[in-house]
Design goal:
Arc Repressor Mutant, subunit A; pyruvate-formate lyase- activating enzyme; 2 domains; three-stranded antiparallel sheet; 15 helices; 19 strands
């Protein structure tokens, strides 16, 4: 590893947002949004989008705690929680349906978690039937589900396919036994392979595998081992995420300490080793952490300028309206974000009172929307243009001050108002996007603050 890369890692491996939204959640101002404003934003965007929307449903229950996970979850083996929770989700959907002036055109449904396959196959089908009842499902829709292979049966895969599901994402993370032990996720390759084979049997047209680099006790050799195993299955997509160490947010991560985590230079080697292996196996890099076969829609979207990024990561669907249902889920109406209650009991209580369970949100200003577009362009297209359109001139000056430093390090090229991310800069795309972040600029965040995970 060259000295220059070591210098870059020391300089840029600092707490930085992942930019699944802009503004990022820590800088939302809930005082700008109330239930009435959120509802109006939903209706306005619904009309502007000709009734098309996507739906995200958060299913928070897991039988087992994976210690690396920073998602909102409820650990239980009591499956009696299924019926009342799904009843609440369907009631929430009926509240949104009553707002909409016409039948919604559903482009996408995504079931996330938690462990969505904690729920029985019949209950999941009942949920989807309740959502799609009296709605229009687009012919080229994408219905996707995140699954933990240990808790997924062939019945799940078969019945969901019958309900219109055509995409599946399997959580793997790493196959090294030592890593699996410390993250409390013992999962065999054979079980993973079995679920992939079921997905193919029932004609899912896109299979994704999630891998993580930077986990406790992980090594370059364990990354090689895991990538080799997964590429032998040849899924359509692979998400190769950087582990986000946020123990102040996720108490399960306190099972290990920073001393058990690889250093930035080791994470860099893990990522680039995995990247080289994936590319050699025929996968093309998409965005900052996804890989896809050239026949996959994600690759096509990236090549045609239709790649998008939202709270679910990179997607082929450029939707400006996401209705989010369930605990902690975040809805997006393009000019507003709204997040639900984070505790199951509080969520169900508000729903049963006939209230939308909002606990956080943000109404975007004109400046927010401009910056949101620019960061999306960087994240999805590796380029954007910066000018003084309705932005504070002092802020624009600060942007170019930071960008010139990034250019000096070889991470971008500046051509007038156009910013182009270099091949080297792609690994630092979070840092580059942060140069455009007005909230960071205004708040002068301390880099050691417990708000964001590190960039590398």
């Amino acid at each position: 590893m060259s000295t220059s890369i070591i210098d870059l890692l020391q300089k840029y491996d600092v707490p930085t947002p992942r930019y699944t939204s802009y503004p990022t959640v820590p800088y939302w101002d809930f005082s700008t949004l109330d239930e009435a404003k959120w509802k109006q934003s939903v209706v306005d965007t619904f009309n502007a989008e000709n009734g098309e929307l996507c739906i995200y449903i958060h299913l928070p229950f897991c039988e087992n705690l994976c210690t690396f996970c920073a998602c909102t979850k409820r650990i239980t083996k009591n499956h009696a929680v299924e019926d009342p929770y799904l009843a609440a989700v369907l009631k929430e959907w009926s509240m949104y349906r009553s707002l909409l002036p016409a039948a919604p055109v559903i482009k996408e449904i995504h079931l996330g978690g938690g462990t969505p396959t904690f729920f029985s196959a019949d209950n999941l089908v009942k949920l989807i039937r309740g959502i799609t009842k009296d709605a229009i499902v687009k012919e080229d829709h994408e219905f996707s589900i995140e699954v933990h292979p240990n808790y997924t049966t062939e019945e799940h895969i078969e019945k969901l396919a019958g309900a219109g599901f055509n995409r599946i994402s399997l959580g793997v993370q790493d196959f090294d036994p030592k890593v699996q032990f410390v993250i409390n996720r013992i999962q065999s390759f054979e079980r993973t392979k079995e679920v992939v084979e079921w997905a193919r049997k029932y004609h899912y047209n896109s299979i994704n595998i999630d891998l993580i680099y930077g986990l406790p006790h992980q090594t370059v050799d364990s990354v090689k081992f895991s990538v080799d195993k997964i590429t032998s299955l040849m899924p359509d997509r692979i998400a190769f995420y950087s582990y986000a160490h946020v123990p102040w947010k996720s108490k399960g991560q306190r099972r290990y300490t920073e001393a058990d985590l690889p250093l930035a230079a080791q994470k860099w080697e893990m990522y680039h080793t995995g990247k080289d292996l994936l590319e050699a196996a025929g996968f093309a890099g998409i965005g900052m952490d996804h890989f896809a076969l050239k026949e996959d829609k994600l690759f096509t979207a990236a090549k045609t300028g239709n790649l998008h990024r939202n709270f679910m990561g990179y997607t082929t669907t450029k939707s400006k309206l996401i209705i989010a249902l369930g605990v902690s889920s975040i809805g997006d109406a393009w000019n507003a974000f709204a997040q639900n209650e984070k505790e199951v009991e509080a969520y169900e209580e508000k729903i049963n009172e006939g209230k939308l369970p909002l606990v956080n949100g943000h109404l975007l200003s004109g400046e927010d929307i401009i910056i949101r577009k620019k960061i999306l362009e960087l994240m999805c297209e590796n380029s954007t243009t910066i000018n003084s359109e309705k932005l504070d001139p002092e802020f624009v000056e600060s942007i170019f001050f930071k960008l010139r430093k990034l250019e000096a390090d070889g991470l971008i090229n500046i051509n007038g108002a156009t910013i182009l991310v270099t091949a080297k800069g792609n690994s630092f795309i979070r840092n580059i996007s942060a140069a455009l972040d007005a909230k960071l600029w205004k708040n002068e965040i301390k880099r050691d603050a417990n708000i964001f995970s590190k960039a590398i």
